[in-house]
């Protein structure tokens, strides 16, 4: 039996993919102590783990505006995550000494989990819910010369944060110690080797287990020959984009399902073929969808492709841009040129009339389903 300390950030897209593996581990008799946040307590405990709350420690990642900014501003992210690590330091040190875990599993951007492993001399496993990134695959994350210049200009601020960590006993030499994994880092990646960019450049310490897609809990009736699903995640509130979709798709005989978050009150008098929801059972909708307009979050794209749905790609961040680029490369989606009504219809017609998009989505789905899943990941962790 293993005792595992697991760390994650307060984000559904980073927590949900791990829960199937956590349940696999606890069902096998291992003890998982999951450091997370109150909003995820029920899900984590249902997976059989012991929940350890990180709320109430001046943890700035709980602020939605801060969390959204992390994906776009590396310097801000580093300062925020160092501050969060130090805010949690006393609690994590006490808990690690009580639990005495065999190793630590930490989300790839929950850097405080990696730092805790370094401080306490424990084996570390990276849980990567996005693509795995090294110097080859990182090219998919487009950075402008201005982005690089801003990073270099801010290095003195970064070094100040590094000194704060060292003063608390964290053996960190520089920024790369925190943010970079290498081919010696034991890593679980929740995608297939086929979908992973530059997969051949990663060592056998990287286990590509495929996305852990949860079972369908509800059902949606297919009411038309073609069903279009639109979801831009909880961050994007681009009203013009939604209005254009509603106007142009309202003139079709397609069934249109839109998951819009809390933005729904801005849209009334909908065409009969369009339904808007704050949230849906995405797996259930994807089972009947013929096309999916997505912001290219890793989970959404993985779930769409798992159900063999061609994608219209509308990324909002560099990480989402990397997911979109790989989907385009493999021929399973097309990037939206603009939010104009003409471009929206052109993209949808393209992926629904050209058979190769569906064929390539099926090919990626097969790679997901043939990956090792939770059983491979459990065997890997048990071997440590």
Helix-strand layout with pairing:
Blueprint: E1 3-7, H1 12-27, E2 31-36, H2 41-46, E3 50-53, H3 64-70, H4 74-99, E4 103-107, H5 111-120, E5 124-128, H6 145-153, H7 155-167, H8 175-179, E6 186-189, E7 206-208, E8 227-231, H9 239-249, E9 255-259, E10 274-277, H10 282-288, E11 291-294, H11 298-306, E12 311-313, H12 318-329, E13 333-335, H13 341-353, H14 355-369, H15 373-382
Parallel strand pairs: 1-2, 1-4, 2-3, 4-5, 5-6, 6-7, 8-9, 8-11, 9-10, 11-12, 12-13
Helix pairs in contact: 1-15, 4-5, 4-7, 9-13
Keywords:
Rossmann fold; about 375 residues; alpha/beta; seven-stranded parallel β-sheet; six-stranded parallel β-sheet; about 45% helix; about 15% strand; 2 domains; 15 helices; 13 strands
State the helical fraction.
Answer: 40-55%
The average pLDDT is 88
In total, the number of domains comes to: 2
For the CA atoms, what is the radius of gyration? 21 Å
Sheet with most strands: strand arrangement: 3-2-1-4-5-6-7
Number of strands: 13
Question: How would you describe this protein?
Answer:
A seven-stranded parallel β-sheet has the order 3-2-1-4-5-6-7, with helices on both faces. The protein has a six-stranded parallel β-sheet with strand order 10-9-8-11-12-13, with helices on both faces. It has 384 residues and is α/β, with parallel strands linked by helices. The chain has helices at residues 12-27, 41-46, 64-70, 74-99, 111-120, 145-153, 155-167, 175-179, 239-249, 282-288, 298-306, 318-329, 341-353, 355-369, 373-382, and strands spanning 3-7, 31-36, 50-53, 103-107, 124-128, 186-189, 206-208, 227-231, 255-259, 274-277, 291-294, 311-313, 333-335. The longest helix has 26 residues, at 74-99. It has 15 helices and 13 strands. Helix 1 (12-27) crosses helix 15. The mean pLDDT is 88.
């Amino acid at each position: 039996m293993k005792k595992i300390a697991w760390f994650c950030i307060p984000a559904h897209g980073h927590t949900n993919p791990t829960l199937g593996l956590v349940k696999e581990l606890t069902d096998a008799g291992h003890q998982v102590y999951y450091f997370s946040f109150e909003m995820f307590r029920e899900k984590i405990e249902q997976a059989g783990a012991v929940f350890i709350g990180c709320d109430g420690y001046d943890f700035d990642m709980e602020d939605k505006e801060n969390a959204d900014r992390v994906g776009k501003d590396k310097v801000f992210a580093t300062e925020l995550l160092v501050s969060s690590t130090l805010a949690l330091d006393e609690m994590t040190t006490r808990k690690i000494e009580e639990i005495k875990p065999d190793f630590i599993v930490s989300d790839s951007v929950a850097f405080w989990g990696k730092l805790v492993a370094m401080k306490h001399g424990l084996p570390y496993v990276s849980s990567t819910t996005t693509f795995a990134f090294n110097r080859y695959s990182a090219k998919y994350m487009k950075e402008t010369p201005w982005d690089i210049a801003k990073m270099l200009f801010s290095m003195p601020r970064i070094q100040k944060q590094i000194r704060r960590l060292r003063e608390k006993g964290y053996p960190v030499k520089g920024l790369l110690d925190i943010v970079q994994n290498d081919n010696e880092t034991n890593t679980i990646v929740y995608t297939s080797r086929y979908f992973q960019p530059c997969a051949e450049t990663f060592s056998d310490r990287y286990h590509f287990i495929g996305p852990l897609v949860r079972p369908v809990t509800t059902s949606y009736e297919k009411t038309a020959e073609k069903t279009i699903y639109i979801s831009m995640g909880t961050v994007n509130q681009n009203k013009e984009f939604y209005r254009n979709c509603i106007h142009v798709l309202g003139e079709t005989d397609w069934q249109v399902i839109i998951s819009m978050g809390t933005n729904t009150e801005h849209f009334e008098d909908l065409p009969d073929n369009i339904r808007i929801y704050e949230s849906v059972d995405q797996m259930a909708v994807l089972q009947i969808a013929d096309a999916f307009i997505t912001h290219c979050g890793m989970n959404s794209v993985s779930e769409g492709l798992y159900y063999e749905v061609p994608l219209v790609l509308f990324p909002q961040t560099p990480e989402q841009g990397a997911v979109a680029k790989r989907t385009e490369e493999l021929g399973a989606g097309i990037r939206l040129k603009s939010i104009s009504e003409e471009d929206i219809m052109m993209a949808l017609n393209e992926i629904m009339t050209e058979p190769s998009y569906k064929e390539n989505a099926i090919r990626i789905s097969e790679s997901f389903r043939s990956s090792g899943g939770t059983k491979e990941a459990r065997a890997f962790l048990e071997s440590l």
